[in-house]
Amino acid sequence: MDAVGSAWPTAEVGTSSGERIQTRPYDTEQRSDLPESELPRAQGSRIAKLAVAGADAVAVATAMLLAALVRHAMFDAPEAIGPVIIVAVVALPVWLGVFARYKLYTAAAVTSFTAELRRILHAVAAASAGTGLVSVVFAQQISRVWLLCTMFFALGTVVVERTIVRQIFRRARSHGRFQRSVVVIGTNAEALAIVQMLGDNTALGYHVVGLVECGGPNGVVAPVPVLGNWRDTVDILRSLDANGVIIATSAIEEPAANRLARELMECGYHVELTSGLVDISADRLLTRPLGRRPVMYIEPVRLAGWRAVAKRSFDTILAALALFFAAPVLLVSAILIKLDSRGPVFFSQVRVGRKGKLFRVWKLRTMVADAEDLLDDLRDRSEVDGPLFKMRDDPRLTRVGAFLRKLSLDELPQLWNVLRGEMSMVGPRPALPSEVSEWSEEVRNRLRVKPGITGMWQVNGRSQTTFDDYVRHDLYYVDNWSLLTDLAIVAKTVPVVLLRRGAY
Q1: Mean pLDDT, the chain, whole residue set
Q2: What pLDDT is stored for residue 149 in this prediction?
Q3: Which of 162, 364, 477, 482 would give a disulfide with 410, using CB separation of 3.0 to 4.6 Å?
């Protein structure tokens, strides 16, 4: 791991191996004098949870209302409104209780959008069954159509509402609000990597106030203060008004970790332990007892069998629907392209598909007709590293092409590639043969799945990310694929496209 630079003065602390680690000095008196804004805490968490519960109630009530309107429009015989109102009023707290049961108000359980989506699916199904039970218990006759429509509408309204809530929290955390002040246990490479990650991504909601030394060789400059020895962790947490720790398990011996975790939990502090795994989806981890030890089983990713059939069905249905509704947009785009510049409407290019099979990808033409011939003269002006070529103000772009790219409309013809089975709706970016020739063996693992129109790289910055990020996102998708992941990526693609994030 690269050293992390610091403008703070440094001191040296001895490690168990006799090596020295440079650290920032810790001054309790100095820290206590800092203004509260510089020591963010998880204040107002109960109010925030109540606000989220209120938003859930509005989303569910909206779904119930929409279901009643649909039921009324579908049948000539109107349904008695009284029983529906009684069941809805009584069932609404049941829905919130079920949501709480499925830990939708527990931040640690809904860290990722995929994990939250899975819990929403289960919770909505269970709450819908609970609504039916309410109607039986209170002897209120309601339409099964209303109940079924409520479930499907609730899936949509709750997912939309939770997406909005997630964005609000991410933005608030990025500005220092709703942060949990934590101490990281350890000063080794893993602990420092955690500090850097949480510092780079404040939207995760953690504010690291310092490290606690427990031995282990390292020779880098710590980006936050080293507060003392692990045996004094409780006193350190109290002095800083922090409310939790993250234990880097590779930095501390097992008996010490057990003793420390037990002591901290008895004092009411949040305790989190690292797994030592990187880029493995938490959704694949199953904790189970193995004798006295809790162990994590990693569920394998199976890309064959019924899962392959489900993914292909998902691709075909979604691509067919998207192509049907996009037909007018394609027609207007084709007319504008012909009016704007000379050349064909469509642009095709050979790309590398699953298992290295070559295929021809289709796009709306966004550049001048001889764009490929001009590429060699522009390669040294690429704004991304690695074999990719990306240029924000590419002179080969036409006026209409620049607009189409901003909204990703140029990629709509790739729906035809999906219907042909050459691409998927979700997957790694389809690469050029010249790019693949420069890949390492590790990067070639991207070819285990079909390339996609959208993917993890596209919804996490696109052209604004580095080549290493591009590879990491795609390999993460290949290694952790699930149908729910595809659904989550498709859902995240819509705001990314509409807000034009990273598109040029």
Answers
A1: 82
A2: 93
A3: 364
